[in-house]
């Protein structure tokens, strides 16, 4: 029996997933959590094989990537399978770098989800087709690659922050922010802040 913990801040979503997953003879939901503190508690008590992890866990809470990293740092860590609505490059990379074994989207058919859970429990990598395509594009020779710090700048740009505010958020100088912006404009083929945000959203580098 594959033991599963659900981490999602929406009770209705957790209830739906529990009903779906528990309908499989070899799968069993043994616990639920809505954030980091509860996830640590439940995982420590119930020792699941797989954690199904949402990425957006509500305002003021650690995101799914941070929770994933915390769970993977435990002495006997569970495998983590991200199940989310987001397929932007920044979300994918953060989740995988945090230690997630796989990344599926919430519109996946039930059978794909079940197969993904089983594969994750076996230690195999599971990726939604659009996620795999994003990673392939990123590693294609000659492809424009946005660095993690440039993604952070783009996310701050999308929030309407100015150079001084971005420098404060990133703990760097305004000159460094301007340098990042220059590189971003060149890579995305734009010459304005609004153009950079629009291009990043269109290319699914950051969320809308």
TrEMBL record:
| Domain Response regulatory span(s) in chain numbering | 3-121
Tell me yes or no: is Disulfide bond among this UniProt entry's keywords: no
Record-level GO BP terms? phosphorelay signal transduction system; regulation of DNA-templated transcription
Q: Which InterPro entries match?
A: CheY-like_superfamily, NreC/VraR/RcsB-like_REC, Sig_transdc_resp-reg_C-effctor, Sig_transdc_resp-reg_receiver, Tscrpt_reg_LuxR_C, WalR-like
Domain HTH luxR-type, chain residue ranges per copy: 139-204
Keyword set includes Amino-acid biosynthesis: no
Database matches in CDD domains: LuxR_C_like, REC_NarL-like
* Domain of life assignment: Bacteria
Q: Which UniProt keywords apply?
A: DNA-binding, Phosphoprotein, Transcription, Transcription regulation
Give one Pfam hit by family name: GerE
- What GO annotations for molecular function exist for this entry? DNA binding
Residues bearing 4-aspartylphosphate are 54
Membrane spanning residue stretches = none
The protein, known as: Response regulator transcription factor
């Amino acid at each position: 029996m594959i033991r599963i913990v659900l981490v999602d801040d929406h009770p209705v979503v957790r209830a739906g997933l529990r009903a779906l997953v528990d309908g499989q003879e070899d799968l069993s939901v043994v616990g639920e959590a809505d954030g980091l503190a509860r996830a640590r508690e439940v995982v420590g008590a119930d020792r699941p094989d797989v954690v199904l992890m949402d990425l957006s866990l509500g305002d003021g809470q650690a995101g799914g990537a941070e929770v994933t990293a915390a769970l993977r740092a435990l002495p006997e860590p569970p495998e983590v399978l991200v199940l989310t609505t987001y397929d932007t490059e920044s979300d994918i990379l953060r989740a995988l770098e945090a230690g997630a074994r796989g990344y599926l989207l919430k519109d996946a058919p039930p059978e794909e989800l079940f197969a993904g859970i089983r594969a994750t429990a076996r230690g195999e990598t599971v990726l939604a087709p659009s996620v795999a395509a994003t990673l392939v594009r990123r590693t294609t020779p000659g492809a424009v690659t946005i660095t993690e710090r440039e993604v952070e700048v783009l996310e701050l740009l999308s929030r309407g922050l100015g150079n001084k505010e971005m420098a404060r958020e990133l703990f760097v100088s305004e000159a460094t922010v301007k340098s990042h912006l220059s590189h971003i404009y060149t890579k995305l083929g734009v010459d304005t802040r609004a153009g950079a945000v629009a291009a990043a959203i269109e290319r699914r580098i950051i969320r809308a």
